[in-house]
Every structure is written in C-alpha cells, then in structure tokens.
Amino acid sequence: MSKTLRYLAIPAFFSAPSYVTASSQTDFELADVKTLFAETESLGANIVREFVNTFLDCREENWDGCGALPVSEASYFRAKGFLEKCIEKYPAPMFGVTPGGSLTFDWFVNPSRRLIVSIDEDAQVAYSSMFGSSSVHHGAVTYLDEVPSIIWAHLGALYPR
C-alpha cells in the first residue's frame, strides 16, 4: 500500500501569497523589507533579513518548546531602531532572543572581548561586556530613540578606531 504525502507549498519568506493581507504594523514593515530585498541584496539587507527572521521565529508563545515568552511587536520595532543606528558605525552583531521575549545583540570579537545587549518592549536595555578577563561591566539603561551613551562607549572600546 502506498501512501500519498500531501504538503502545503509555503512560499519563500518574501513571496507572500495573494490571500495574505497586511493587518498589522508588523505586516506592513515586513512588506517594506520585501521591497527592499527586491531592489538590493547588499550586506545591510542580509543583516536586516537575519534580524527579521530571528523575530519571526520567536513571535509565538513557547517558541523554544520550554515556555518562552513571545517577542512582541513593540520589542521588535524598538530593537530594529537600535540595530539601524548601531550598524551605521559598527560591525553587525549576532542576534538572539531571551526566554523572556527580549531581542539580543551579541558583538563578539574573541572570548575575552564582547558586548551583549538585550532590549525589551518596555525600553529596558540590559548589557554585559567584557574587555579582558579583569574588565567586566553590566547594567541596565532606558532606550527611547537614541542609543544610550554607555552602549556607544562599550562599542567604541570593543572596536577602537
């Protein structure tokens, strides 16, 4: 007896089917990203794509199978603004998500030189940095529209010019 496997053909992320409508700010934002990618495939576009994919992978509750909170649209937009400002001056970080629903940025130079920043929907930026084995810093600040000066200082120390 043979079995016929049926599957739903899911289009690539940026090929939205015609029956999908943009019903939220996120959908409009993702449509803008689709347009951007259609026009250019630059390094910046790859960074944005990776960031967007990180958000999309984790916007449902229990995305990790262990009860993690979803990343909210507010967290996404706040973190996106932060990222856009940072990549104008410094190398792109790696992206991640905490089980609490915060988006994270990890600038890793080597095991003793790195900066990790997490941003939540309430504009809290938690950071931890290491500049050698005896120079460890951490704290939390508020992020509204400007990257906090302490983050700029840590990025500058991580990537001296």
Integer tally of domains: 1
Reported for the largest beta sheet, the result is: 5 strands, antiparallel
The topology string of helices and strands comes to HHHEEEEEH
**Class based on secondary structure composition and strand pairing:** alpha+beta
- Please state how the strands of the largest beta sheet are arranged side by side: 1-2-3-4-5
How many extended strands? 5
How are the SSEs ordered, and which strands pair?
Elements: H1 25-39, H2 43-57, H3 73-86, E1 94-97, E2 103-110, E3 113-119, E4 124-131, E5 136-142, H4 149-158
Antiparallel strand pairs: 1-2, 2-3, 3-4, 4-5
What does this protein structure show overall?
The chain has 161 residues and is of the alpha+beta class. The protein has one domain (25-158). The protein has four helices and five strands, in the order αααβββββα. The protein has helices spanning 25-39, 43-57, 73-86, 149-158; strands at 94-97, 103-110, 113-119, 124-131, 136-142. A five-stranded antiparallel sheet has the order 1-2-3-4-5. A hairpin with a 2-residue loop joins strand 2 and strand 3. Helix 1 runs antiparallel to helix 2. The longest helix has 15 residues, at 25-39. Mean pLDDT is 81; it is low at 1-22.
Condensed summary:
By secondary structure, this protein is an alpha+beta fold.
Defining traits:
about 160 residues; alpha+beta; five-stranded antiparallel β-sheet; 4 helices; disordered N terminus
